Amino acid sequence: MNISFFASRTMTFYMARMFLVRFAAVLAALVIVLMALDLLGESGDILAYPGNGDAQLWLYVTLRTPQIIARFLPFAALLATLITFVTLNQNSEIISMKAAGISAHQILAPLVVASLGVGIVSFTFNERVVARATATLTAWQDADYGPIPRDRGIVPNVWVRDGDDLIHAAAVRGRGRQARLDSVTIYDRDGGRLISIIEGARAVQAGGGWRVAGASRFDVAKGVTVRLASFDFAKGVTADRFTLANVDPASKSIVQLRTAIADLDAAGRPTGPLRAGLWHKLSGPLSAVLMPLLAAVAAFGLARSGHLFVRAVIGMALGFAYFVADNFALAMGNLGAYPPFLAAWAPFLLFLLIGETVLIRTEE
């Protein structure tokens, strides 16, 4: 019995090449069709802005295409795997391989390795291209497909936690040492119990913290308000913790997202959805490796038995069930119902076990 990971060098390259050629063809067809449909839906909004024309339509295509590739790459891997296995089964090549003593896992091995390469390329593409394109397209859409306005450094309605204390600013203007807070309210708390409320029109950085001039302090226990010449607060709290805006995981690389999560943690803001998005940046591209295992049911069984189409449908159903479970788990993670790690990795591990169980019970 041949117990090596690959059956032979020739067969490995033959099956991997067959899969990659079909994967490229399926992905190209999906991107062309979906991009055309998406452009039909968005072209009216793009051209509605005065002065927009063909150049802006092509710009939208260049920004939107990477998103479509990233989203439907696992679907292309699933369909390419099914086409490859159905072709091999119809030509009795699978039967010949098994008659030569090659196990089901050895038949799948070339496609798994090729899918792993696809996953690595997908991860690199997402980090280098998709994140930047998403950030640009989001800013353009927020401007109604007009000129993207310059960032004036104003962040509205900011909350920051400093120990037990809560700090609210109606607006934060500027960055770094030039940052200042407008309409500041400090909720002085001790162990969850509110002690006093300090309010001021403007706060600036001073002495390693922040200082608000002309403040008023309301003592909760006494019920009286006292005027203060100045009030120092948030010692050691940097301006970055006030200037953090909403973070979109899709528009940031892993390094940028980890930095944003650390800053938000320091500011006392919830980071569960961002952590789920961070883990999904790894599990998402890796889902391509699952597709040969989930579609393997289409590889085996006699083609002349008339069940080949049913097997292909079962393989496709398993693949699409994974995508449904993945989206559901990620949504639950964004709502806080699932822990971030579980939301990103549970569907992958679950369907890995399902695919391996089906393969062992039916073919090994």
Automatic annotation (TrEMBL):
Cell compartment(s), UniProt: Cell membrane
Domain of life the protein comes from: Bacteria
Keyword Metal-binding (UniProt): no
Pfam families: LptF_LptG
Assigned keywords, A-Z: Cell membrane, Membrane, Transmembrane, Transmembrane helix
Keyword Membrane annotated: yes
Membrane topology: Multi-pass membrane protein
Biological process according to GO: lipopolysaccharide transport; transmembrane transport
One GO cellular component term noted in the UniProt record for this chain: ATP-binding cassette (ABC) transporter complex
Membrane-spanning ranges: 67-86, 107-125, 282-301, 308-325, 337-360
Name of this chain's protein: Lipopolysaccharide export system permease protein
